[in-house]
Amino acid sequence: MQEEAEVVRRIYQEFLDGKSPYKIASNLQKDGIITGSGGSRWYDSTVIKILKNEKFMGDALLQKTYTVDFLTKRRVKNTGHATQYYVEDSHPGIISKEEFTAVQIEFERRTNMRGYSKSGKSKFTSDYAFSGKLFCGYCGSKFRRTKWGRGKNEQIVWICINHQTSGNEACDMKTVKEKALEQAFVRVMNRIIMNKEAYIIEESGGPEFDFNDIDAKIAELQQELVNMVRNNQEYSSMTAEIERLQAHKQKMKSDEAERAWKGRVVEDFKAYLDARDGKLLDKFDGDLFRKLIEKVKVQSMVEVEFVFKIGVEMGGIL
After folding, report:
1. Dist. CA 115–CA 118, nearest whole Å
2. pLDDT per residue as tens digits for the range 49-79
3. Strand, coil or helix: what is 294?
4. What is the pLDDT of residue 67?
5. Can you give the pLDDT at residue 256?
6. Which of 3, 161, 216, 224 has the greatest count of CB atoms below 10 A from its CB?
7. Which residues of the chain fall below pLDDT 50?
8. Dihedral angle sign, alpha carbons of residues 230, 234, 235, 241
């Protein structure tokens, strides 16, 4: 259904704009969107399954589950007990392969973000605009939002988790004020708006990917494999080579999709700047910040560096 397709597109776009699965699920539920199974309750696990399901880009992974009891027809998740088959372009996709690839890359980025814990990692959140975006220039840890003072003297600040947890000996980074961060972003954006041609980096073409040769080689090896099986010959090395070529082909496709997505991000940013037509920002926009910024490196209590998703890095004064 068209309505369901629009929900899927919305989920992918909001995730790439910086929202967490929990936040996306919360927004869908608040807006009264019905789930695919007809329910009204959305869970972050449901959103994650949608974001990681290859069927939405037109591909299919067969035998994700298998039958363990043919009498009861009970099926369980296939964790390697049965052969799985990946079919490309098995049906029309709802989102592009480039968008799907970008989402998987973003999942990996969020998973590898360093917080401050025994594992060195912490859960991604998007409760606030700067959540999961601020990183310490000294130790690399994330920043945490906290409040200082009360009443009229209350102010919101962000503090390095390593410094907050272990003190100055672990990290000497000072706190930064949220309002100062917001104002610094507005100033940086206005610099770009006033001189957009100087900051837009066009994506280079890069190598052209030709899959014909690798497809032909895989087909040739598969035919050799069939002959070896018929003649009762050892074929494990042949199978390994086919799997290696298939993995290489998949990596090429992923690289191609990632490059195409980066090009689209640049084009979207250019379109945004063109639409503003030189009009400067007069206040902080959290959604715009999430959409444009990959991360912010806090160099000191008065200096930060904004890393844009288009590849531009710009320093700002707090």
Report:
1. 10
2. 999 998 888 876 655 555 545 555 566 566 6
3. strand
4. 54
5. 84
6. 161
7. 68, 117-119
8. negative
Residues 168, 173, 177, 178: is their CA dihedral positive or negative?
negative
In this structure, what token pair is assigned to residue 168? 């100055």
Place of tokens 């290489």: 248
Rounded Cα gap, residues 139 and 171, in angstroms: 7
- Residue 41: alpha-carbon gap to chain centroid: 24
Q: What is the pLDDT of residue 11?
A: 96
Between 212-230 and 236-276, two packed helices, what is the crossing angle to 10 degrees? Answer: 160
- The two tokens of residue 145 are 């939002």
Contact 241, 221 (CB under 8 A): yes
Query: Tokens 């369980």, residue?
Result: 76
Alpha-carbon gap, residue 110 to 194, rounded angstroms:
32
Task: Determine how β-strand 293-298 pairs with β-strand 176-177.
Answer: unpaired
Cα pseudo-dihedral 36, 38, 43, 49, rounded to 10: -20
Strands 143-148 and 303-308 turn out to be unpaired
d(CA 153, CA 42): 38
> For tokens 């080579």, what's the residue?
241
Supply the DSSP symbol for 91: S
> Which is nearest to 310 in space by CA: 244, 277, 263, 243?
263
Tokens describing residue 245? 């070529």
Beta 293-298 vs 303-308: how paired, if at all? Answer: antiparallel
- The torsion angles phi and psi of 126, rounded to 5 degrees, stand at -130, 35
Q: Give CA–CA dist 311/204, Å, rounded.
A: 12
What's the pLDDT at 118? 45
Hey, which residues does 134 pair with through a beta bridge? 296
For residue 43, the one-letter residue type is Y
Strands (DSSP E) found in the chain: 60-62, 65-69, 74-77, 85-87, 134-136, 143-148, 155-160, 176-177, 293-298, 303-308, 313-317
Report in angstroms the alpha-carbon separations of 282 from 182, 183, 185, 190.
11, 9, 11, 9
**pTM for the full predicted model:** 0.74
Q: Are 247 and 255 in contact (CB under 8 A)?
A: no
